[in-house]
Amino acid sequence: MIFNGSPKAGGNTDFLIDRFTTFLGERDVVKFVLREMNISPCRGCEMCSISGRCVIKDDMYDIYKKIENCKSFLFFSPIFFGGVTSTLKSVIDRCQPFWARKNILGKKFENNNRRGLIALIGATSFLKGYECAALTVKWLFNVIDVAENRTLYYMNIERHSDFLNYNIDNDIYKTIEFFGESEE
Description:
Layout: E1 2-4, H1 12-24, E2 31-33, H2 48-51, H3 60-69, E3 72-78, H4 86-93, H5 96-103, E4 115-121, H6 127-143, E5 148-154, H7 168-181
Parallel strand pairs: 1-2, 1-3, 3-4, 4-5
Helix pairs in contact: 1-7
């Protein structure tokens, strides 16, 4: 399951996701391009603490269903002011029903060996910004029981050609191996 948190079509995040999905080939990949979806921010109404479900009816319901059944999660986001994009942050915040199910209603995920990858892309070399953004996604991983995860930082990326400073193919192969271990 791939989450594209970039608000910009054809940008560096799309470029990186395209590289990853090319290597994934025939695997069953579900990709959510969040900028193309109707996702409202969390209202903080706490209704999910009662029912385990969000009262906002929008495209998050497609995401909820996939999160419940998925074992592999890949989050891609540019860094905006030391965090993931507001679009991706809205998705993370809207996962509050999973927190409520786990911590209030006592319902855990039945999937074992869930794994996640966080790939963060930015024009800056300020490491703390990447670490803060990664931590936001790791909070979600904790809530949805993604026990093992890895993070990739792509710093100083202004244009697609800047990815030449990284061994993306090696990152992709290691990612495929990492996710392949969860299927054993």
